[in-house]
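Action item from last week, closing it out:
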Amino acid sequence: MTLLPWGAALRQPDPLSCGASVLVVARMLAEEEYAARAAASFPAEVLALHRRVTGHRSRDGRAQLPWPRALGTPPWAVARELALVTGVRHRVRRARWSTLQEAPGRSALYVGNRLLPRHVVLVLAVEADRLRLYDPARGDVVVVRREAFAAGRLRVAGWDRPWFAVVPDVIRSVGAGARPA
Protein backbone atom coordinates (compact mmCIF):
# COMPACT_ATOMS: atom_id res chain seq x y z
CA MET A 1 0.00 0.00 0.00
CA THR A 2 1.71 3.19 -1.07
CA LEU A 3 0.78 6.73 -0.16
CA LEU A 4 4.09 8.08 -1.36
CA PRO A 5 3.74 9.99 -4.64
CA TRP A 6 7.03 8.89 -6.23
CA GLY A 7 6.03 5.37 -7.19
CA ALA A 8 9.34 3.67 -6.53
CA ALA A 9 10.14 2.15 -3.16
CA LEU A 10 12.27 4.50 -1.10
CA ARG A 11 14.28 1.95 0.90
CA GLN A 12 17.01 2.90 3.31
CA PRO A 13 20.35 2.20 1.59
CA ASP A 14 22.01 0.52 4.57
CA PRO A 15 21.03 -0.93 7.96
CA LEU A 16 21.87 2.29 9.85
CA SER A 17 20.14 4.99 7.79
CA CYS A 18 16.47 4.59 8.73
CA GLY A 19 16.42 7.96 10.51
CA ALA A 20 18.05 9.76 7.61
CA SER A 21 15.64 8.04 5.19
CA VAL A 22 12.71 9.31 7.27
CA LEU A 23 14.15 12.83 7.15
CA VAL A 24 14.68 12.76 3.38
CA VAL A 25 11.10 11.56 2.82
CA ALA A 26 9.74 14.20 5.22
CA ARG A 27 11.53 16.88 3.24
CA MET A 28 10.38 15.37 -0.07
CA LEU A 29 6.78 15.59 1.14
CA ALA A 30 7.29 19.24 2.09
CA GLU A 31 9.32 20.52 -0.89
CA GLU A 32 8.41 19.61 -4.46
CA GLU A 33 11.69 20.73 -6.04
CA TYR A 34 13.75 18.82 -3.50
CA ALA A 35 11.53 15.74 -4.02
CA ALA A 36 12.31 15.65 -7.74
CA ARG A 37 16.05 15.73 -7.05
CA ALA A 38 16.01 13.35 -4.10
CA ALA A 39 13.79 10.72 -5.74
CA ALA A 40 16.34 10.37 -8.54
CA SER A 41 19.23 9.80 -6.13
CA PHE A 42 17.56 8.60 -2.95
CA PRO A 43 20.38 6.37 -1.60
CA ALA A 44 23.05 9.05 -2.08
CA GLU A 45 20.81 11.73 -0.56
CA VAL A 46 20.09 9.56 2.49
CA LEU A 47 23.75 8.67 3.09
CA ALA A 48 24.84 12.31 2.77
CA LEU A 49 22.17 13.39 5.25
CA HIS A 50 23.12 10.58 7.64
CA ARG A 51 26.71 11.85 7.69
CA ARG A 52 25.46 15.36 8.35
CA VAL A 53 23.01 14.54 11.16
CA THR A 54 25.63 12.49 12.98
CA GLY A 55 28.39 15.08 12.45
CA HIS A 56 29.58 18.15 14.33
CA ARG A 57 27.28 20.64 12.54
CA SER A 58 23.66 20.49 11.46
CA ARG A 59 22.34 21.64 8.09
CA ASP A 60 21.73 25.11 9.53
CA GLY A 61 25.37 25.32 10.67
CA ARG A 62 24.69 24.91 14.38
CA ALA A 63 27.02 22.85 16.53
CA GLN A 64 25.59 19.52 17.58
CA LEU A 65 26.80 16.64 19.67
CA PRO A 66 28.54 14.23 17.30
CA TRP A 67 27.06 10.76 17.28
CA PRO A 68 28.57 7.47 16.11
CA ARG A 69 26.92 6.61 12.79
CA ALA A 70 26.96 2.96 13.84
CA LEU A 71 24.19 3.80 16.33
CA GLY A 72 21.87 5.29 13.71
CA THR A 73 20.32 8.75 13.93
CA PRO A 74 19.97 10.47 17.31
CA PRO A 75 16.53 11.84 18.17
CA TRP A 76 17.78 15.40 18.78
CA ALA A 77 19.19 15.47 15.23
CA VAL A 78 15.85 14.22 13.89
CA ALA A 79 14.09 16.98 15.86
CA ARG A 80 16.40 19.66 14.49
CA GLU A 81 16.14 18.47 10.89
CA LEU A 82 12.35 18.20 11.06
CA ALA A 83 12.28 21.76 12.43
CA LEU A 84 14.31 22.93 9.45
CA VAL A 85 11.94 21.16 7.06
CA THR A 86 8.70 22.32 8.65
CA GLY A 87 9.59 25.61 10.32
CA VAL A 88 8.23 24.25 13.62
CA ARG A 89 10.36 23.08 16.52
CA HIS A 90 10.07 19.40 17.38
CA ARG A 91 10.41 17.72 20.76
CA VAL A 92 11.17 14.18 21.85
CA ARG A 93 8.24 12.66 23.75
CA ARG A 94 7.34 9.26 25.08
CA ALA A 95 5.52 7.31 22.35
CA ARG A 96 1.85 7.39 23.21
CA TRP A 97 -1.09 7.16 20.86
CA SER A 98 -2.45 10.45 22.22
CA THR A 99 0.89 12.20 21.61
CA LEU A 100 0.86 11.15 17.96
CA GLN A 101 -2.84 11.91 17.57
CA GLU A 102 -2.45 15.43 18.96
CA ALA A 103 0.66 16.26 16.90
CA PRO A 104 -0.23 18.92 14.32
CA GLY A 105 2.02 17.49 11.63
CA ARG A 106 4.28 14.62 10.72
CA SER A 107 6.28 12.96 13.46
CA ALA A 108 9.13 10.50 13.62
CA LEU A 109 8.57 7.39 15.72
CA TYR A 110 11.39 5.33 17.24
CA VAL A 111 10.55 1.64 17.62
CA GLY A 112 12.54 -1.31 18.90
CA ASN A 113 12.50 -4.24 21.24
CA ARG A 114 11.93 -4.27 25.00
CA LEU A 115 15.53 -3.15 25.61
CA LEU A 116 16.33 -0.48 23.02
CA PRO A 117 14.94 1.69 20.23
CA ARG A 118 16.37 0.32 16.96
CA HIS A 119 14.42 1.78 14.02
CA VAL A 120 12.83 5.08 12.95
CA VAL A 121 9.64 5.49 10.90
CA LEU A 122 7.72 8.54 9.72
CA VAL A 123 4.13 8.99 10.91
CA LEU A 124 2.21 10.05 7.82
CA ALA A 125 -1.31 9.89 9.26
CA VAL A 126 -3.01 9.13 12.54
CA GLU A 127 -6.56 7.89 12.23
CA ALA A 128 -8.94 6.86 15.01
CA ASP A 129 -7.85 3.23 14.90
CA ARG A 130 -4.59 3.11 12.94
CA LEU A 131 -1.33 4.77 12.02
CA ARG A 132 0.02 5.04 8.49
CA LEU A 133 3.81 4.95 8.62
CA TYR A 134 6.59 5.28 6.09
CA ASP A 135 8.87 2.37 6.93
CA PRO A 136 12.32 2.88 5.39
CA ALA A 137 13.17 -0.83 5.74
CA ARG A 138 10.34 -1.61 3.28
CA GLY A 139 10.54 1.66 1.42
CA ASP A 140 6.78 1.94 1.58
CA VAL A 141 3.81 2.68 3.79
CA VAL A 142 2.69 0.26 6.50
CA VAL A 143 -0.37 0.36 8.73
CA VAL A 144 -0.31 -0.25 12.47
CA ARG A 145 -3.58 -0.71 14.31
CA ARG A 146 -4.17 1.09 17.59
CA GLU A 147 -4.54 -2.20 19.50
CA ALA A 148 -1.15 -3.40 18.23
CA PHE A 149 0.44 -0.09 19.24
CA ALA A 150 -1.02 -0.29 22.75
CA ALA A 151 0.06 -3.91 23.16
CA GLY A 152 3.60 -3.30 21.90
CA ARG A 153 3.11 -5.57 18.88
CA LEU A 154 3.85 -3.14 16.03
CA ARG A 155 5.60 -5.65 13.74
CA VAL A 156 7.36 -2.88 11.83
CA ALA A 157 10.63 -4.03 10.25
CA GLY A 158 10.84 -6.74 12.90
CA TRP A 159 10.42 -4.31 15.81
CA ASP A 160 7.43 -4.28 18.14
CA ARG A 161 7.76 -1.62 20.81
CA PRO A 162 7.07 2.09 20.37
CA TRP A 163 9.76 4.00 22.28
CA PHE A 164 9.51 7.71 21.64
CA ALA A 165 8.22 10.17 19.13
CA VAL A 166 9.71 13.36 17.72
CA VAL A 167 6.65 15.59 17.42
CA PRO A 168 5.97 19.21 16.45
CA ASP A 169 6.00 21.61 19.39
CA VAL A 170 2.99 23.81 18.68
CA ILE A 171 4.09 26.44 21.19
CA ARG A 172 7.41 27.29 19.54
CA SER A 173 8.09 27.80 15.85
CA VAL A 174 11.49 28.18 14.24
CA GLY A 175 10.52 31.30 12.31
CA ALA A 176 10.62 32.39 8.72
CA GLY A 177 13.80 31.89 6.78
CA ALA A 178 15.14 29.28 9.17
CA ARG A 179 15.50 26.67 6.48
CA PRO A 180 18.74 26.92 4.52
CA ALA A 181 18.89 25.97 0.86
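Closing note: The two ends are 32 Å apart (CA to CA).
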